[in-house]
Amino acid sequence: MQGHSFDIPLVQIKDEITENHEVKLYILRTDLNDPFISGNKLFKLKYNLEKAAKENKESILTFGGAFSNHIAATAAAGNKYGFKTIGIIRGEKTEELNPTLKFAQEQGMELYYVSRESYGLKDSPDFLSNLQFSNSQILQFTNSFIIPEGGSNELGIKGCKEITDHIKIPFDVVCCPCGTGTTFSGIILSLKKDQSALGFQVLKGKNYLKGEVESWLKKIDYSDNGNWEMNEDYHCGGYAKRSPELIGFISDFEKKHNIPLDFIYTGKMMYGIYDLIKKKYFKKGQTIVAIHTGGIQGNAGFNH
Ligand SMILES: *Cc1c(COP(=O)(O)O)cnc(C)c1O
Question: How far is the CA of 164 from the centre of ligand 1 (A)?
């Protein structure tokens, strides 16, 4: 990853809502940090790739669903930084590959499909050696550098701790959409005393991600001073579900500000931020920075 230029634009968003409620809203466009390895996934991969290189691994193996941004990003990063990549994909192979998997394959990723039941066991120690593939394939799997689904490990968190380094202005609140909470955990680690973080859970479930984040923080011995919150109100029906309000919001936002949002993550976060501004959740004069985590490649899959 050395030599990768990280020049991430921070864009102010001004409209009648931010003006009327007297808040300053910015978006950190990490979606622009690489045309293919977009958003937070690059930060999550950074130290994983570094470790894989140190261990002289030739290939990287990871896991994901058929529309996974992490699969797309790992395939592109492997291609760019000289690793073979192997994707263990949840579910059946479809006759025509969807845009995400097609892209991954074009980047050189070898795709292997496992049933949903079997995929559910992927974090158990002998999962790879018990897969129904040839011995040489199994050997290739087990010799690879293994990154968990979503890039969710401590090295992923370490990379995400660097996201806020790219916010070159003083700010009060940083907002981030959350799937596993890995990115958000990294962001929390980077906060200064008077700053806070607000996560937007994109899937249903009471206290689900809050618990995940708490256990990450505990695991890395971070003394949590409670300057973060996990909002659970804007999942819009659940993971990868979309409501008419969300679709309308995203299309209005794109028209007005010329910034694309995805339906799974950043769209829900921005929808939530605007609703909270209107509900006076943020104090007057506060500077809010929303992290655009990318995910635009997934829109093609949605329309597929
Ligand atoms: C993967 C992803 C997330 C979620 O990140 P977590 O670390 O799993 O919480 C957020 N936004 C986008 C665009 C993603 O692709």
Answer: 16
For residue 39 and ligand 1, the question of a CB distance below 6 A is answered with yes
From residue 69, how far is each of 13, 38, 64, 66 by CA, in Å?
Answer: 26, 8, 9, 9
Phi, psi of 225 (to 5 degrees): -105, 20
State yes or no: pLDDT of 300 exceeds 80. no
Q: What is the mean pLDDT of residues 100-128?
A: 95
Residue 221's pLDDT band (cuts 50, 70, 90): confident
CATH of 40-151 given 3.40.50.2300, 3.40.50.1100, 1.10.10.10, 3.20.20.70: 3.40.50.1100
Tell me how far the alpha carbon of residue 20 lies from the centroid of ligand 1, in angstroms.
31
Give the integer Cα–Cα distance in Å for 152 and 181.
8
Identify whether the C-beta of residue 176 lies closer than 8 Å to the C-beta of residue 291.
yes
185 lines ligand 1 (CB under 6 A): no
Ligand 1 binding pocket includes 156 (Cβ within 6 Å): no
Fold entry, domain 10-36+153-303:
Rossmann fold (3.40.50)
- Of all protein residues, the one whose alpha carbon is nearest to atom 14 of ligand 1 is 295
> What is the atom index within ligand 1 of the atom nearest the CA of 182?
7
Per-residue pLDDT at 65? 95
Q: How far does the chain reach from its first CA to its final CA, in angstroms?
A: 32
- pLDDT tier at 304 (50, 70, 90 boundaries)? low
Averaged pLDDT of the chain: 94
Q: Strand, helix or coil at 71?
A: helix
Residue 32 CA, ligand 1 centroid: distance in Å? 15
Is the CB of 295 within 6 Å of ligand 1?
Answer: yes
* pLDDT tens, position by position, 134-180: 999 999 999 999 999 999 999 999 999 999 999 999 999 999 999 99
Say yes or no: do domains 10-36+153-303 and 40-151 share a fold. yes
Give me the residue spans of the domains in the chain: 10-36+153-303, 40-151
